Amino acid sequence: MASKVLVVDDEELIVKGIKFSLEQDGMVVDTAYEGDTAVEKIKSNNYDIVLLDVMLPGKNGLEVLSEVRVFSSVPVIMVTAKSDDIDKIMGLEYGADDYITKPFNILVVKAKIKALMRRSQKKQEIIVSNDHTIAKGDLIMDTEARNVAVNGRDVNLTAKEFDLLELLLTNPNKVYSRENLLSIVWGYDYPGDIRTVDVHVRRLREKIEPNPGDPKYVHTKWGIGYYYKE
Fold first, then answer.
1. What is the sign of the dihedral through the CA atoms of 159, 160, 165 and 167?
2. What 3-state DSSP class applies to 102?
3. Tally of domains in the chain
4. Same domain for 51 and 83?
5. In this structure, how many other beta carbons lie within 10 angstroms of the beta carbon of residue 11?
6. pLDDT tens-digit profile of 95-123?
7. 3-state class of 43 per DSSP?
8. Alpha-carbon distance 62 to 216, whole Å?
9. Is 218 within 8 Å of 228 (Cβ atoms)?
10. pTM
C-alpha cells in the first residue's frame, strides 16, 4: 500500500514541488495551506507522515502540532525558515519527530520521510510479549495498539514519548545516557540536541507520574541519564 503524506505550507509553489516529487516515488500526497484545514484533514485521514511548516497564516505550525497531538501520534516533520535552534527544540517539545530547515533539498526531504517511516515500521514490528501487553504495577502498556494507561486512566503520548517509555519499561533498572536515548529512540542519524531527551522526559513525567517532581516510574541517574525503576 502506498504511503500517504500530508504537506502543509502556505507557499503554493513549494507545496506543488514537494507533491510532484513525492508522487514520483509512489506516495499519495494530500495538501493544506493553513492550520485549521490541516487539523481537520489529520482528523479525517490516516496519514503516514505529516510535513508541517512552522510559519502558517492564522494558526501556526506549532499550534497545529499541539492540537494534533491531543488526538493523534502521526509522525510529523516540522519545516522552518529559521535556523535558530530554539525553534527546532520547541517543535520537538510540542511532539515533532524531526525537522527540516528552509531552503531544503528535496532529496533530503525524501530521505527524512523514508527514514522516519522505516523507524515507525520497525517499532510496530516489535513484540515484547505474546499478548503485546506490559503491566508494571498500575501502569499498563499495549505495544501493539500503542496505548498506555495509568490507574485505569488512558494517557495520550506522542510517538516519541511512547517509544521512550517503551524502551525504559522493557529494560527496567537499566540506565541510559541521553546520547544513548537519542541514538536508540530518535535514530543514529538524528541531528538533534541532547536537550531534546530532557524535554521529552519532562513531558512524559507530566503525563504519567502522580507527582512529576518526585517520579515513581522514570528516574534520573544524576550525571548519567534516565531509567525505569522496577
1. positive
2. coil
3. 2
4. yes
5. 13
6. 788 888 888 889 989 998 988 887 766 55
7. helix
8. 30
9. yes
10. 0.58
